[in-house]
């Protein structure tokens, strides 16, 4: 319950600060914190105005919008977005983040980039100094199925270890839990989770570009120099805002 309260706190604070009557096109992220963003939007009556539309970052996000009675916008119709709010798996001091725990990072990054303002909402577990500190599962990388084996090899040559000390899997193709075979993204692609040593995680922008250039990589779960602000709900009921 402490984590859920922290998620709610972060979400409510971000909506109150960044979603106003003047914002008409709003991007809704994915994951378990974003439902609280939608709760707040509904509570503030911001769904009532039918010319306010909400754009989804994937199947879960779309269902969230529809079930909350928000007006679902067609992503193709809106090249510009006023504000997108999304969760993250970990955030560092410079507001760089690891995303893709939910395998939604491609569409999330499209709506993050298209937004005038992109805001992260997260509980205290995500608040780090350096990426890779709390999120040790590795960087989520969306790859075309045809290329996944080659990308695994290339990532290994870049220094991603096949095993990590904390017992979590090292460099690996993300396999389904209640599904035989690999996880398949909303775009029909596979996800590779690639941990990297701290010295590489200290420069996420450089790592992002090196990974993105590998043939077969569709999108990388590193969001660098994109967030306007990050809201972390804390266990003691306070909110940490980093901008
Ligand atoms: O996959 C993602 O990037 C999602 O935004 C997700 O990982 C956010 O995490 P949450 O479920 O803790 O909000």
Map the helices and strands.
Elements: H1 2-18, E1 25-28, H2 34-43, E2 53-56, H3 59-67, E3 81-86, E4 90-91, E5 97-98, H4 105-113, E6 115-123, E7 139-143, H5 148-157, E8 172-173, E9 190-194, H6 198-201, H7 204-212, E10 217-220, E11 222-223, E12 229-233, E13 239-242
Parallel strand pairs: 1-2, 1-3, 3-6, 6-12
Antiparallel strand pairs: 4-5, 5-11, 7-9, 7-10, 8-9, 12-13
Helix pairs in contact: 1-2
The chain binds D-4-phosphoerythronic acid.
Describe the 3D structure.
- This protein has 243 residues and is of the alpha/beta class.
- Helices cover 28% and strands 22% of the residues.
- It has 7 helices and 13 strands.
- The protein has helices at residues 2-18, 34-43, 59-67, 105-113, 148-157, 198-201, 204-212; strands at residues 25-28, 53-56, 81-86, 90-91, 97-98, 115-123, 139-143, 172-173, 190-194, 217-220, 222-223, 229-233, 239-242.
- The strands form 3 sheets. The protein has a 6-stranded mixed sheet with strand order 2-1-3-6-12-13, sandwiched between helices.
- A hairpin with a 5-residue loop joins strand 4 (90-91) and strand 5 (97-98).
- Helix 1 crosses helix 2.
- The protein starts with a helix and ends with a strand.
- Bound molecules: D-4-phosphoerythronic acid.
- This is Ribose-5-phosphate isomerase.
- Pathway: Carbohydrate degradation; pentose phosphate pathway; D-ribose 5-phosphate from D-ribulose 5-phosphate (non-oxidative stage): step 1/1.
- Belongs to the ribose 5-phosphate isomerase family.
- It comes from Kwoniella shandongensis.
- GO terms for molecular function: ribose-5-phosphate isomerase activity.
């Amino acid at each position: 319950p402490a984590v859920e309260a922290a998620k709610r706190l972060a979400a409510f604070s971000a909506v109150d600060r960044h979603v106003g009557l003047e914002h008409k096109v709003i991007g809704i992220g994915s994951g378990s914190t974003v439902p609280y963003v939608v709760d707040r939007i509904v509570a503030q009556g911001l769904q009532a105005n039918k010319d306010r539309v909400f754009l989804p970052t994937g199947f879960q996000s779309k269902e969230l919008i529809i079930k909350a009675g928000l007006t679902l916008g067609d992503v193709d119709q809106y090249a510009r977005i006023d504000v997108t709010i999304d969760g993250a798996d970990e955030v560092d001091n410079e507001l760089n983040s690891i995303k893709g725990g939910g395998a939604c990072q491609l569409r999330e990054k499209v709506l993050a980039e298209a937004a005038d303002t992109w805001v992260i909402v997260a509980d205290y577990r995500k608040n780090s100094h350096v990426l890779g500190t709390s999120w040790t599962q590795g960087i989520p990388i969306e790859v075309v199925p045809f290329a996944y084996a080659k990308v695994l090899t290339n990532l290994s040559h870049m220094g991603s270890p096949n095993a990590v000390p904390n017992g979590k899997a090292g460099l690996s193709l993300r396999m389904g839990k209640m599904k035989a075979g690999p996880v398949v993204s909303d775009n029909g692609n596979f996800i590779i989770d690639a941990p990297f040593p701290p010295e590489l995680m200290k420069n996420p922008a450089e790592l992002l570009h090196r990974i993105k250039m590998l043939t077969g990589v569709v999108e990388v779960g590193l969001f660098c120099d994109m967030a306007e602000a990050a809201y972390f709900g804390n266990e003691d009921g306070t909110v940490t805002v980093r901008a």
